[in-house]
Amino acid sequence: MAPKFSYLLATFLLLLFSIQLFIAQSEGHEGKTLKFLQSLKEIQKGQNVVGLNEVKKHLMKFGYYPSDDTNNLNDDFDNLLESALKTYQKFYKLKVTGSLDSATIKNMMIPRCGVPDVTNLTSSSKPTSNSHHKSKMFHMVSHYDFPKGMPRWPSSKYKLTYTFRSGVQNPNEADMRSACSRAFQRWASVSQFTFQEAPTGSKADIVIGFYRRDHGDGLAFDGRLGTVLAHAFYPQDGRFHFDADEDWSNNPNMNQFDLESVAAHEIGHLLGLAHSQDSNAIMYSIIPIGTIKRKLTQDDIDGIHALYPN
């Protein structure tokens, strides 16, 4: 009986350890960061609180805190942090408080695209309304935007080729290919572009792949259940990267991310669109886990037509 009891006890302890490990992995970066941000809730300007430097780095990553002001990445709640929070709150149509209130913290933790919302912000510049770049005919009804300089593909490159080249082994390659093919077709159906997959290993205008953490492009991923899901570069760069640590699917459950939804968003960047302030648009930057959001909205269509008029 003793050996049998020892075996049962060992099995139970192993099972308990596995459950605890699963919970820890499930919380991952998201769980840790959420708890960290909650501890900073309602901190006000003028205070010095450990951890505020991480908030500044987070806002800098997405374009809200000046990228040339690294000397102020301290734990002071200064004027720059208040201004950055107000700009962030305005962009996401939150109550503009300039503080780390509950709604702002919650919004900051929703998974999102890694492309900054505001481009080329420095300590001597101020973010402008997204309407600055827009065609006047759309000004009153649209929320789409373009990055500074409005980079675009020339008319001679409206027939774009794409290929797949991952930095790590990709277990979801078949799913990624089919999801990207459908996402490209969505943009082709509303624009002058056509997209053709090029043979593996050949030169192409767009290169798509899975990567982990720091992968050499200056936009490091943050692991399973981190904040950043993917990113793509504006014309005519052509790089498009998924975070390989996330759980991807073409038919996502509530613990997975939808490949096609994210692909459709990143292709918008590849074509020259920045983030929209319309929460229904494909080009809105955030997408909760388990969400399927594949259909282009009128805002997305207006944006691509404004950038590439017929």
Automatic annotation (TrEMBL):
Stretches assigned to the Peptidase metallopeptidase domain: 149-310
Positions annotated to bind Zn(2+) 1: H215, D217, H231, H241
Obligatory cofactor(s): Zn(2+); Ca(2+)
Segments carrying motif Cysteine switch: 111-118
Binding site for Ca(2+) 3: D222, G223, D243, E246
Keywords of this entry: Calcium, Glycoprotein, Hydrolase, Metal-binding, Metalloprotease, Protease, Signal, Zinc, Zymogen
Binding site for Ca(2+) 2: D205
Ranges that cross the membrane: none
Active site residues of this protein: E266
MF terms in GO: metalloendopeptidase activity; zinc ion binding
Organism domain of life: Eukaryota
Signal peptide boundaries: 1-24
UniProt GO cellular component terms: extracellular matrix
Binding-site list for Ca(2+) 1: E246
Free-text remark on how the cofactor is bound: Binds 2 Zn(2+) ions per subunit.
Pfam families associated with the record: Peptidase_M10, PG_binding_1
Family: Belongs to the peptidase M10A family. Matrix metalloproteinases (MMPs) subfamily.
Name assigned to this protein: Peptidase metallopeptidase domain-containing protein
Organism encoding this protein: Hevea brasiliensis
Taxon lineage: Eukaryota, Viridiplantae, Streptophyta, Embryophyta, Tracheophyta
